[in-house]
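WP5 quarterly update. Target: Spore coat protein. Source organism: Paenibacillus residui. Length: 72 aa.
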Amino acid sequence: MPTGNEQMTSDRNLISEKELLYLKDFMSWELLAMKKCNETANACTDPQLKQLIKQVGEKHKQHYQSILAHLQ
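Structure tokens (predicted):
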């Protein structure tokens, strides 16, 4: 039978349903931002602006992957 401390540690590793919904929202927002950056960069004719938008899209991709890694 787990001691009080073991139970507290175990509980901290659990994610509530509400927290999972927040994480799902965050991931959806990051994915949407990635897609929007990609679409905008592809439509952009200014090379410097295009590169900047692609960099922003990469940051959103990194955020998405970071959230996903924490969930695995």
